[in-house]
Amino acid sequence: MCGIVGYVGGKSAQEVVVEGLRRLEYRGYDSAGVALVHDGAIVGDKRAGKLANLDKALAEAPLPESHTGIGHTRWATHGGPTDVNAHPHRGSRGRVAVVHNGIIENFAVLRAELEAAGHELASETDTEVAAHLLEREVSAGADLAAAMRTVSARLEGAFTLVAVDAAAPDRVVASRRNSPLVVGVGDGEHFVASDVAAFIEHTRDALELGQDEVVTITCDEVSVTDYAGTPVEPRAFHVDWDLSAAEKGGFDWFMRKEIFEQPHAVGDALLGRHDDAGRLQLDEVRMSEDEIRSVDKIIITACGTAFYAGLVAKYAIEHWTRIPCEVELAHEFRYRDPILTRDTLVVAISQSGETADTLMAIRHARAQRAKVLAICNTNGSTIPRESDAVIYTHAGPEIGVASTKGFTTQLVACYLLGLYLAQVRATKFGDEIAAVVDELSAMPARMQRLLDDAETVYAVARELKDVRSVLFLGRHAGFPVALEGALKLKELAYIHAEGFAAGELKHGPIALIEEGMPVFCIVPPRGRDFLHDKMVSGIQEIRARGARTIVVAEEGDRSVDGYADVLLRIPASSTLLQPLTAVVPLQLFACELATAKGHDVDQPRNLAKSVTVE
Ligand code: AGP
Fold first, then answer.
1. Of 103, 304, 453, 591, whose CB neighbour count within 10 A is largest?
2. Fold matches, 249-445 and 454-596
3. What whole-number distance in Å separates Cα of residue 347 and Cα of residue 338?
């Protein structure tokens, strides 16, 4: 979720680009840079850290005047947040500069091809590969747009590329696949950007680009083609949002925007981690196959929402690998004197990578010689740095304090880890693993269907906005989803909400049921032994005692119709993967109910996005 700006026009390109990056700071980033075309050369600077570091560097060593330039705020995926890894990246002769948002899945193969041809790449990024490929094309006589079409057609994955050529000072060229890019249309000037927030202070007239398209902007012209070079007419639109809404992509809250980003984020979490045959490729696990085979216990440790992701992971990992898997709250972990050996794999889940409780837990685990693997969304943060290996969730910056896409991409990373362990230890056949990978690949579309029907959930939330207590029930992998749904409501609506294992009701909690009390019931898929039927009988019990049942059940499951006061349908999924869809209505419910109560959904009271104190 990097920030990208490109400009050609009569103003100072450095000023327009840097100010555009400032408008994109809300997206979260860990480095920034600019590149300008001046007098037949590329000039620029880039710095790790915040934009202030780049500002300081540019103040100390001002760049020459230019009217053509590009800029970037980076959210690190491949390679940590360093000056060298910061964008823009250049080709071997420094003639072409490129900035990139997304993940180039086949960059390793392309990098090997370039190095075999004598190219020396300085960074750990996938982006630098594109810079060298583009420069090779223009050096062979192609214009920048033709070069962009040729190179883009070779790339796999999700990317927005924006480039300048020292030999073509009048233009900026960009390409997009599965990653955002918009064009700003000014008077004698044009812009390209990852979102309209970068240029709406200059113009509110914009053009939308489609999949696999290349755009060339000059002072006076915008031309768009597909990757075959066929001209395309982009759709024009007028930006009505104010800057604040633009930063949230038109949503009222970052959290709501991030709920709706989940299909894309889940897709990104899968990118490059399996081949077309469904075979896992998880090199980042950085454990030899022998080490993986010697693992005799897994302990997952985390806090809050990340802990609930770990609870879901336990069901999947134990079923697929037959390795005992414990899940421990990080702040409890080291005080219970856990039994750790060299064959224990401790998995630390953390969106921010800075949660002090989780950091202390992994320090304890490493002191006990256990292997530590982090599942984290923030490249270069402390927890992955202090772990033996890391699986990044690639959710992009999560700005809302209440975690949403952080949670669902943590689930995907845990599933991938479990499948990889099963693949190496051969506890699952290849076709069984491939079947799960196929279903994971179908999840973005299933989640999108739920988001397309968000209004159904919103209506329930608005009707219940004055409720004082809500219960959440689930069984098996649905139990952690119930806990997560309750946490969302607690932290956003500030009301009592509690998640229970449905089987636990008759052991006490059923005494809480009062007339009209809303109870979310997450119904497991049919066909999983007695799990489903037991859940339905639990719904009957609470309804008989006056509960207002809000039933989350898969499409086609008619068995619940007679017991649901509200029925929220989710696409049919396998038991272990159902959390990816079952959680979505609960996220939407909490967000809308808190909004109806007039709360600050992005910054709930008493909470911080990253709890860096124990
Ligand atoms: C979730 O909505 C909360 N913001 C909180 O529970 C969070 O999940 C927890 O503090 C862990 O944070 P981390 O994932 O950054 O380690």
1. 591
2. yes
3. 14
